[in-house]
Each structure stands twice: as C-alpha cells, then as structure tokens.
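Q: Fold this one first, please.
A: Sequence and structure below.
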Amino acid sequence: MNPIIAAGSTVVTLQDVRVSYRSRAEPILRGVTLTLSAGETLGVVGESGCGKTTLLRTILGLIPTDSGVVEVLGGDPPGLKDGSPASRAAIQLVHQDPFASLNPRMTIRQILQAPLRINGYEHSASRVRELLDMVGLSHSVLENLPAQLSGGQRQRIAIARALSIKPKVLLLDEPVSALDVSVQAQVINLINDLQGSQGFSCIFVSHDLAVVAQVANRIAVMYLGQVVEIGDTDSVLTEPAHPYSMALAASVPSLRQEPRGESWRGLAVGEPPSEMMTSGCTFRSRCWVATSRCDVETPRLVERTSSRQVACHHPQGR
C-alpha cells in the first residue's frame, strides 16, 4: 500500500521551520532545519522543553507551522483531517507513555486489530499473532487489558501496533524513558532489530544521549527550539563542536573522553533563560566561550565539515 522508497533518498525534510503556540508568546521551534534519509535513524536530543515533541507533532501535521517548509515522503505532512489514509499510514508515532497511549478498555487483540482493519490490511487472528511474535510477546496476552501487562510489554504492544501497517517512517517520542534500565535495553534492541528487518526510517527523540548513542546514525542537538549541531553520532558524541553539545556529552560518564572529557564537566552554567532571547545566541548566558558577538548576532546552522553542521560563532575542536 505504501510506495517503495529508494535507498538513500530523503523521506523527511524541514527547512527553517517556525512554530508557536497561542498560549506562549515566544516560538517553540525557531528555524529548525534537518533531513531524514531512507533507512536512517536520526536521534534528536536536548533538555525538556527544547521542542522535541513539538518537532514530531509538526512532522505529523498535527501542528501548523508559522513559516518554513515541511515535507514527508515527498508531500505535505499527513495531518488528521486532510491527509489520505495511505499518507497517514506511512508515518506512525510511538508515544512516551505506553499505558496512556493504549485504550484501557480494549484487549490487546482489539488494539492490534484496529489499525489493520481501519487501513484495509488483513486483520485475522494469525496476523495478530504474527505481530506478537515480531515483538517477542506470548500469544497468551491477547485477551489481556493493558493494565494487566508490564511497562515493557505495553511498549512492545505500542511498537507492534505502529508497525502493523508497515509505515515508512517511525517517530519515537522518549520510547524508553518510562521503563526500567534493563527493560530499556530490551526495547532498544527490539527497535534496532525491527528496523534492520523492515527497513523503516526513524526519528528517535530522547533527553538521554546514552540511549540515543545505541540507536542513531546521526544526532541533532536541540536547544530552546533550535538545532545547534547535527552530524554523525560518533563524531558528535566524541568530538562535539557546539558548547551545549559538549556540556551534554560531559553529563554522561560513559561518553566522556579522558583526559579531555574532564575539562567538559560543568561547562553549562545555570538553567535555560526564563525569557526567550530575541537576538543573539540563546545559549550565551550559559556558555563559557560567549563574546559580545554572541549578544547581538544569532548564529545560523552552517556546514563545518561534510558530515557536521553547527550553529555557533565559536565552535570548539578541529
């Protein structure tokens, strides 16, 4: 039902996207630019409130943009009202809280059959059992309600439901943050295995760099509604160029490089500003390399190497 996507082609594009809410004076997304390629996993990291979930909702077409361009699989975001059933099926979302995202009054069988039936797919008992096999769950849970399952089991059901209609793009919003560490590893391995076998593209949102390091080919670092650095996972984590990326990497002991890593500790001073800065670099109040230029000139995301883009007047490293 969904078109075949050529390897290496771009499946999601955002160009200078701005989004604001009526309830807030300042914009939530401030000129976000990024791409997602076929078969790739793009990790999106940043502190709470930086706009990660809003980014996913924008890609889904659930939030209108103030300006900029959003393309999903060569067309407009599917939305809820205007998009065709095929376009909506081609991109699916797995929520952060698996309990809140599953209807508590439906059995697991009903939860898995619903998207199949609505989108015109085979929804037989054998197909539902195949979905459970895909995510490593016993058929004995079919008549259970979500409340009767563990958090890890519920998230596996949410993943099975999202993948049941064979999407080309999977959006994951903090999919393991509500799970125990041991269960997190199981779900992360499951996602990696399923992507290898099914070939979908993935945007994996998290505030945890250690988690994203296990799944992402590339990482986009967000700060206060902007992408401040984007590049290959290994290079961003081991040789971050933006001061905020350096501070994030320093906060994860397993990612610190010695002895250089020791100098990264405590670099980001204080909390994000309570009021949005209308000009200059939004990170400057917490940055140890900020200059007077950072007060008045907003840095733009520019290519620093063939695989790295950075929005900083004073990028660090080579």
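Q: Good. Now the second chain.
A: Here it is, same layout.
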Amino acid sequence: MPSTELSSKDGVVIVKLANGYNVGISIIGAHIEVIKENYARVEVPEGGGITTYVEGQGGKLISIVSTGGTIVSKVEYETGAVRPALTADDLIDFVPEIREMGSIEVVDLYRLLSENMTPDHWTSIAKAVWGKLVGGSDGVIVTHGTDTLSYTSSALAFALRNLPMPVVLVGSQRSSDRPSSDSALNLLASAIIALNAPFGEVVVAMHGSISDTYILACRGVKVRKMHSSRRDAFQPVNDIPLAKVVFPDRKLVMISSKYLSRCRREDLILMPNFERKVAIVKAYPGLDPEIIDFLVDRGFKGIVLEGTGLGHVNEACIPSVRRAVEEGVVVVMATQTIFGRVNMNVYTTGRKLLMAGVLPASDMLAETAYVKLSWLLANFNDLSEVKKLFVKNIVYEINEVHEDYIYPRWYHGDRLQ
C-alpha cells in the first residue's frame, strides 16, 4: 500500500491483507528479497498529464484517464480525513487482475474532488478520452469522484459521438485502503465492460447492491447518485441499466437491448465545448423572480428551471421568464421529481410557461438538461437550431416511451432478474 507520512518516517511498509485490512510491518534491519517481478512501468510523455504504462497479458490496451475522487484517494491516518493522494498508477496495485485483460496505460490528468469540476474540465477530459479512442485503445475508463459523476458522464456523452467502444466512468464511495472499499471491484468491472460490451455509449459503472455481487453499467445521461454514502448509490432514472457484471464469475450480462451500437473508429466525432453561462434554478415556494432577472442581467445564455410536478414555477416568475426568452436566453423546464417527465399542457401555469417560450425537457434529469443546454449553446450559433436540438433525442437522454421505472422490472430487492 502507499506509505503515509508517519510510516515513511518510521520505516514501516503497509501491506494489504486478503481480508481487506492493512498491517504495518517494520522494515528496519530487514532483508527483502524480490520473489517475482509482476510488471514494469515505462514513463510516456503526454500533454495532458503524466502517463505510466503497465505491461499486461494479451494484445489489448486499456486506457485509464484519472481525474481524482475517492477512487484515487486514501485515508490520512493522522486525521482520519480522505484526500486525493494516490497517483493513478497506484490503481493497478489495487487491482492486479486487470493485467490479465491486457496492458494498461494510466493518464494522471487531474487530482480533483469532483465538486471542483467545471465545464472547462469536461472539455479537457473529452479531449483526453478522444485521444485514446483515436490512438488505438481497446477500452477507455475515466476515474472520477462520485458527487458530480453524472454531470461529467452526460458531458462526455454529448461531446463524444459515434463511439467505437464504451467509455466507462467509475468512482467509489469508500477509499481504497478501507476494508469495505468498492474501488477495486468497480474498476475491475469497468475494464470488463470497456473491452466486451457491444454498445458505443458513455456509461457509469458502480455497485448495484450493497454486497459485492454485481456492478451495473448505467447510461451516462440517465443515472443519478441517489444516496450519499451507500456503495449502490447510483441508479438509472427513467431508464434501465444497459448491462451488469456478475461476481465472482466476472461475467458481462446485457440487460437492455436498446443502446447505441459501436461505430467505426474513423467515424468518431469530438464536440468538446461547453457554455459556462448556464444556470439551474430550483423552484420552491416563494421563488423570487429577481433571481431570473439577475441571471439575464449578468449575461447568462441558458437557464434550466427545475420545476415542481409536471413542470411548474410560481406564476409571479412568468414575466421574468418571458423577458429572458425575449432577450435571447434559452429557458428549459425539467422536473425536480425523481421519476416521470415534464408535461406542461396539463395545468394553466405550464401552458403559460410554454406560451412564454419555455422548452420542455421531457424526462431528462435536470443535470442532464443543464449539460445538454451548455453543450448546445457552445457548439451551435443559431438559437433556433439550439432549441430544435434540445427537444430532440440525441444519445437516449430522452426516453420516448413512458414507462413506470419507480419499481422497474429488472430490480427486485437485492438481485437482478
């Protein structure tokens, strides 16, 4: 295990035991013999960050773009806090089984806690992933903090089109040096998905239950972190998972037959730009219209209203919304309910908002609507084109068929059907 400040001073090496716990062993005066050297690392120059290479079995190459988060974090033993302190290269030490699938290259792009992610980071990550996709990688994984993981997965889904393989985003709820860590299994499943899944989509791979029985691959534009700390925090919303990896067999099982298939590598499209001047405004009793006016006055180009129910805000806000639209701001409506979709034709308030120029986000998550609007505004200059594309299904961010996914058929208790 990586040494801590205390262990490095005291001449102590920390060893991860098979039961998941760590033990510190003094190496002062000890004789150390190398029994077997499993792999070698070679430094490779890379514009986006330090890249390390790990020789593996077979002829395939797995590229891991590390951006930070708990999956590359460890516990500070002196304080008990978790901080991003591991290099991306250390991930291979935790999951040696990945070398059985192929060689590994690891790009240490960022060491960010995901709450510090910005749209500019999405652009850099998209470009880094694109470089690996066109450069011949057989599988691409992005390690990321869980707090804003669904935002980045949505961003990559729009920025990288016609994917020749899955792009798998993975995080962990518990750091790698805890016995209950989910990082190793999540990362191992990500490699299996990246190499073997038939779809060409951006997905999030995380635990599907609190036990180590399966990992779900959920569509990146349809997944949300639903719990602050559980290992199975990520669940699809208004959708079903694309696939699962079952353990201990390490078997990939497809769940959905509706997915974007892999395309030819030469057909890959990169559109990595995002508009920073987009905001989400959550509806609540007494929402002050001046908040909308403020955003317009500050030059914001897009506003996502996270409305109540079928897509409502209080009527006092409608004049401000109308003014925003008239001044060229694209205003869209998502619902703050977890499941279901916007339908602004049912009640008077919704119809007034439609007449004011608000675009319905259908069953898109508010965060997906935010990312999509940001992406459209940065890549298309014509506002009429932006509005037309916003309501169009591009990467299955909209589920055209209305089904009840609150108690989806694929999920029963702690097992998948």
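Q: Anything worth noting on the second one?
A: Residues 1-36 form one domain.
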